[in-house]
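G., before I forget:
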Amino acid sequence: MELDECLEKLYKAQLLPEVTVRALCFKLKEMLVKESNVIHIQTPVTVVGDMHGQFHDMLEIFQIGGPVPDTNYLFLGDYVDRGLYSVETIMLLIVLKLRYPSRIHLLRGNHESRQITQSYGFYTECLNKYGGNSRVWQYLTDIFDYLVLCCIIDDEIFCVHGGLSPNVQTIDQIKIIDRFREIPHDGAMADLVWSDPEENNNPTLDHPDNSGQHFQVSPRGAGYTFGRSVVEKFLRMNDMNRIYRAHQLCNEGYQIYFDGLVTTVWSAPNYCYRCGNKASILELYSKDQFYFNVFEEAPENKLLKENSLNDNYSEDSITNSVVNRKLIADYFEDDSASTDGSTDPEMYMFSDVYQARSASNRHVDYFL
Amino acid sequence: MSRRNSPPLRSSGINTIQLNAAREMHARTVRARRMPIPTSGITAPSILPTATTTATNTVLPAMPARHICNNPNNPPCVHCGSVIIPSPQATLPLEDNPSITINDWTISSRKKPILNSQELDLWENEKLKGLTLPEMIFGNNYIRIENPKLDWSIEFNALDALRNVQLQDSGIRVAYSSDWINSKRRQNSANAAQRYANDVSDDSLNIIHKYDWTYTTRYRGTENPPASRFRLDNDQTLPLDKLAVHDKILFYDDMILFEDELADNGISILNVKIRVMNERLLLLSRFFLRVDDVLVRVYDTRLYVEFDENKVIRESKEFEGKYQDVLAKHRLSQSHDPKAALRDSSWVAQNTPMVKRECEIIEF
């Protein structure tokens, strides 16, 4: 299948056949294996944070920020898990990368991992969408091993999914990591996709020795939080200006730490279809000119709400996943039926009839 | 950098057209929740249907009408043909507080989005000092049950639930913690030998900021007045026979108070749901914790109110088990996706040993 043909299908949220997925993954692997762990790009570019399978919101991003290849994109990782359309999301990104290799760049997030995806929904989704076999999941998680770890924009802005690592003082130390593997629990590669900044608000409370400025072990017993002095030192040593990262939910769509030295970009609005948060994409025009384009969830998501599709919290997740598939299928059937323009899906959704129907369908449960 | 710290606004004020559109949308949502009325003779119920007006209606149901819908936005109640189900949370700053009154008991709830960064700052620096907050806090949500005549109420909210989280080390570590710490120790001693400058000294491998990162809470609701009127009586049980009857549900809500994904090491979530029937109500507050490859925990609090007897029973159960033991139970059953069941708190509760049960009662 031609790439453009794949794109056309994917934009309509149709699944590609298993053989095509396999071929695409193979192609992408060939491309990514040549890339360094750290890629260098130039502005203008639009930086996108976590997507988590919220496919319709990603389409919304291409509406708001401009389509590929007219706009350059840098995605900071976490494409899969939690949302209901992880397969569609990652497949669209893969095909876009193959079609426009210099226009879109994909970093690795902590969810681009075999272990995590088994616990957080991507594995289950692959099984559900590909008739109970896990081969598509295998192809896709194999690709994850090839994704690059960091990106440097205009030689000044360091971009990574999670944050800094005590094992990494210089960019060259990142370049020598062997990245073609499952994300380990330990070491520089793990820290880059896992660690979080921590602003030290209470210097008197817990950190009499000012340790809040440095790396701290998380109370979970693994992983780091990094403080201001770590960031300052890293930026100074590498002659950089600031850091963009994703990895943490923020209600406003972005969060600024250490007076702008570190910024979190979050791009999954109404996260998990229930948080009610905003999301943003960061549009960088030049190294000093930028704009947080803040947006809310795509209207398509609202279709999902009353059915409480997130099988994480359903009373009966096993039968629920079957129901999911049916509902999703129904939805896309509706969608393709409406392309002839006879029914405007948006009108339909906000119509009294629809609302009344969804209100009566809303889940009421004789729990004990 | 000029936009830093200020939310990026598209324009300085709100456009009137947008405002009207928003109002219209809200009105539609609200209207849609009024069910079509089965009998054609009666027009939409007056804005505030009271027990007396509905009682004189011709569409009398089998049971006597005795409850009052307090919120004009509520869809009509059973007399008028439907169940009261609060709307999904409004994203606009519109308040929607569904509420119902039966006898002197009033039940109300509120659902709003997660806290914004200003609210989070306030919580972090004042209200919950010392706790690193969970990722998602639905801090403006609540379910409240009150009886002004008896001067008693109980509310379930996130703030009080999080106040119950211990500000000390829970002792729980993620599965790979010891490997991780040990490898750091080795590395540090190697570094020290080389006199290599490092940001992590051996000291800093001790956890400095101590709080229960699993957010385990034994929260059982906030009473007002604060002096608890519950009396411990473990011989009491919930009247399951009465609850098993499918009486018409007049009011139903289900909400999350807080949730954290434990940096992808599992989940910690507090969920509250309530169903109100003509003669009684049942509320379930469930704290669910799963630390992958370590443990699972379900702390349930059920609150039962019998309206006519003015009797309140509160039963709390704690379930806890090793992750592998619970997973093994599922492996026995079936499935090539065993971890899916461990995302389902009900399944986990049923398959995890109970470690504690307490029952309390108030008889007014």
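Residues 202-209, 305-361 of chain A have pLDDT under 50 and may be disordered. The radius of gyration of chain A is 21 Å.

More on Monday.
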